[in-house]
Specification:
Elements lengths: L1 E2 L3 E2 L4 E8 L2 E6 L1 E3 L5 E3 L2 H7 L3 H22 L4 E11 L3 E15 L10 H9 L3 H8 L3 H4 L3 H11 L11 E5 L5 E5 L4 E2 L2 H9 L8 E2 L11 H20 L5
Antiparallel strand pairs: 1-3, 1-10, 2-3, 3-8, 4-8, 5-6, 7-8, 9-10, 11-12
Length: 247
């Protein structure tokens, strides 16, 4: 999720465009065939593979969830789906991506507020920013499914109430100009400094890195399909440790 710097549409209003890019649907570029031969998947083949009812239903569910979260902050009529289920190509895989935008209208920060104009002052104090949209979107719907609250309750019980650490949270930045950019922590690796200290105390060499991977389980899921998709996700990062290209 990202948001733009405030831009003035007129002398009294500024606009902030908030954008979400949910990813649901993954196809590995390099496919291992039954004969152990490697087949490079084309864009056309990826589009066909990602056009199944399951993949599209998952993506559409997240789009609707994000639209709902955005409406609660930016208001009705200010939410638009710019792209719906478009296949994008990356170095080692193809992704099914949608783009949803919401526009925040708020009083301009340069507005000269009269001493007696209490309404304008109140509007300035209550003006929403990109951080309000980010807060309303957490936890990320692409990691919880819908309905979000009930899904989180079930997930916590299934995972024995253990924290997920950084994985499936968000990581990003905000700049002094008012812009912000955050991503869900997937296909990422991280390590804790304290773990390095523990290794040093045991006289072990090297660092311990953590990589999280998972998948959305629906009524149309199969064990084999979800397992293969999860391996595709984790291997896109694991290749950095082996010195080989992700496959």
């Amino acid at each position: 999720m990202s948001w733009s710097r405030p831009t003035s549409s007129n002398s009294h209003q500024s606009e902030i465009v908030c954008q979400f890019r949910p990813i649901k649907g993954t196809v590995r570029k390099q496919q291992i065939m039954s004969s152990n031969a490697t087949h490079t998947v084309t864009l056309a083949e990826a589009i066909a593979l990602l056009s199944t009812t399951k993949e599209r239903a998952e993506n559409l569910m997240i789009v609707d969830l994000i639209r709902h979260d955005l409406h609660g902050v930016v208001g009705s009529g200010n939410v638009h789906v710019r792209k719906l289920m478009v296949v994008e190509e990356y170095e080692s895989l193809f992704q099914l991506v949608s783009v949803i935008e919401g526009t925040l209208q708020s009083p301009s920060s340069h507005l000269e507020i009269g001493r007696n104009n209490k309404r304008e002052k109140k509007d300035m104090e209550e003006a929403k920013t990109g951080i309000d949209v980010l807060a309303a979107s957490l936890p990320p719907g692409s990691m919880t499914g819908a309905p979000k609250r009930r899904s989180c309750q079930l997930l916590r019980a299934i995972e024995d109430y253990k924290p997920r650490s950084v994985y499936s949270g968000v990581l990003g930045y905000m700049c002094v100009g008012g812009r912000g950019d955050f991503s869900v922590v997937i296909r990422s690796m991280f390590k804790w400094d304290t773990e390095g200290q523990q290794h040093a105390s045991r006289r072990c060499m090297g660092d311990t890195w953590q990589i999280g991977a998972g998948g959305a389980v629906t009524s149309l899921s199969t064990e084999e399909g979800e397992w293969e998709e999860m391996k595709t996700k984790v291997m896109s990062t694991m290749g950095l440790f082996t010195g080989s290209q992700p496959s």
